[in-house]
Amino acid sequence: MKRCAYSLLVASTLVFSSHAGEVPTLSPEALEIIAGDDWTGSLTYLNYGEPARDFTIPAALEVEIVERGLKLSYNYPEEPQQNSVVTARVSEDGTKLMGAPVTKISILETGAREVLTNYPCEDMGRSAACEMAFTFSENEFRVRKMVTYDGETDGFRRNEYIFTR
Predict the structure, then answer these.
(1) Domain that holds residue 122
(2) Are 125 and 147 in contact (CB under 8 A)?
(3) Which pTM does this prediction carry?
(4) Among residues 45, 7, 42, which one has the least CA distance to residue 27?
């Protein structure tokens, strides 16, 4: 419990530094609040076939602290062959998460923090902009990927992880 309280304090005080006109910066220590192996939830994703529709599958998550970030081990009980590991590192200057520029950091009404990144990507063979939203607190962790095709204004959700503990 002491560790959780400490992590919450660190996240509250170090999660970001942002002033008008400045690039938001993220501290790697701010992410430590989600460390642990007791996350359960789901992955909802838009399939790549026709007709396009959402699928939701159960998921679990283990989060381990690594240098300048976290190791995220995604587990899918019904599809274990799809299990994967991703390392989410914060750049030395705090302006990038997982190599993508941090565009906004905010504290939501729930007290959770939200970090947005935006980067050029490709989806279904088309050039696009991808926005990742990382929302986290001591008991909630969400990762949502939004895609907006070049030349279009409306984006769509490609996938979203929702975990609680």
Answers:
(1) 2-164
(2) no
(3) 0.85
(4) 7
Helix-strand-coil split of the chain, %, nearest 5: 15, 55, 30
Q: Are 132 and 145 in contact (CB under 8 A)?
A: yes
CB-based contacts of 16, cutoff 8 Å, min separation 6: 24, 25, 26, 27, 30, 105, 113, 115
Question: How far apart, in whole angstroms, are the C-alpha atoms of residue 88 and residue 103?
Answer: 16
Tens digits of residue pLDDT in 96-139: 999 999 999 999 999 999 999 999 999 999 999 999 999 999 99
Which helix H or strand E contains 64, and what residues bound it?
strand 54-66
- Are 117 and 102 in contact by the 8 Å Cβ rule? The answer is yes
In angstroms, the CA 20 to CA 92 distance is 21
CATH of the domain at 107: 2.40.128
Tally of domains within the chain: 1
pLDDT above 70 as % of the chain? 87
- 3-state secondary structure string across 70-97: EEEEEECCCCHHHCEEEEEEECCCCCEE
